[in-house]
Amino acid sequence: MEVAFIRKYDRTKPKPNDDLVNGKIRFREVLVIDQNGDQLGTMSSRDAQNKANDANLDLVCVAPKAKPPVCRIMDYGKYRFEKQKKEREQRRNSKVVSLKETQLSPTIDVHDKNVKLKRTLKWLQDGDKVKVAVRFRGRQMAHIEIGQKILDDFVEECSEYCVIEKPAKMEGRTLIAILAPKKK
């Protein structure tokens, strides 16, 4: 019976170990590769386990969906450590691009627009996408061209740092354009 411990402040359960190692390997026959990378051939999983025990190492199934499944004789602790190290490195190197939003109005003043422009340029330089939205309220819907002009001017001032991913388009009472940062 396997007991899952819950850590003191982190209430999420730790991920169960899904690797097929030693006694968890239940295949009738497996293709065995020794610690030097040489193929030992196809044999029963019990014989493969005995070979691993003789070498004081573990039998790890590296390709369970292959025909026959491929098992390798190796130090399992070292294998897990290397696997975790690679995952950490991949997470560190990946950049999550988020979508920020700047809301404008057809009656926006110059200073307010410049403040929003400065914030938008900072987001674009940080590598985030920006959704620029002009909201129309009440009778402003009769003069959509005013909001279109404000949005076009805003995008024109940002054009040095961005490319237009999605041009301006009306969606309900909102005029929306999406800007993506330029590749460096």
TrEMBL record:
<dbReference type="GO" id="GO:0016020">
    <property type="term" value="C:membrane"/>
</dbReference>
<feature type="domain" description="Translation initiation factor 3 N-terminal">
    <location>
        <begin position="21"/>
        <end position="90"/>
    </location>
</feature>
<dbReference type="Pfam" id="PF05198">
    <property type="entry name" value="IF3_N"/>
</dbReference>
<dbReference type="InterPro" id="IPR019814">
    <property type="entry name" value="Translation_initiation_fac_3_N"/>
</dbReference>
<dbReference type="InterPro" id="IPR001288">
    <property type="entry name" value="Translation_initiation_fac_3"/>
</dbReference>
<dbReference type="InterPro" id="IPR036788">
    <property type="entry name" value="T_IF-3_C_sf"/>
</dbReference>
<dbReference type="GO" id="GO:0005829">
    <property type="term" value="C:cytosol"/>
</dbReference>
<dbReference type="InterPro" id="IPR036787">
    <property type="entry name" value="T_IF-3_N_sf"/>
</dbReference>
<keyword id="KW-0648">Protein biosynthesis</keyword>
<dbReference type="GO" id="GO:0003743">
    <property type="term" value="F:translation initiation factor activity"/>
</dbReference>
<dbReference type="InterPro" id="IPR019815">
    <property type="entry name" value="Translation_initiation_fac_3_C"/>
</dbReference>
<protein>
    <recommendedName>
        <fullName>Translation initiation factor IF-3</fullName>
    </recommendedName>
</protein>
<dbReference type="InterPro" id="IPR019813">
    <property type="entry name" value="Translation_initiation_fac3_CS"/>
</dbReference>
<dbReference type="Pfam" id="PF00707">
    <property type="entry name" value="IF3_C"/>
</dbReference>
<keyword id="KW-0396">Initiation factor</keyword>
<dbReference type="GO" id="GO:0032790">
    <property type="term" value="P:ribosome disassembly"/>
</dbReference>
<comment type="subunit">
    <text>Monomer.</text>
</comment>
<keyword id="KW-0963">Cytoplasm</keyword>
<comment type="function">
    <text>IF-3 binds to the 30S ribosomal subunit and shifts the equilibrium between 70S ribosomes and their 50S and 30S subunits in favor of the free subunits, thus enhancing the availability of 30S subunits on which protein synthesis initiation begins.</text>
</comment>
<dbReference type="GO" id="GO:0043022">
    <property type="term" value="F:ribosome binding"/>
</dbReference>
<feature type="domain" description="Translation initiation factor 3 C-terminal">
    <location>
        <begin position="97"/>
        <end position="182"/>
    </location>
</feature>
<comment type="similarity">
    <text>Belongs to the IF-3 family.</text>
</comment>
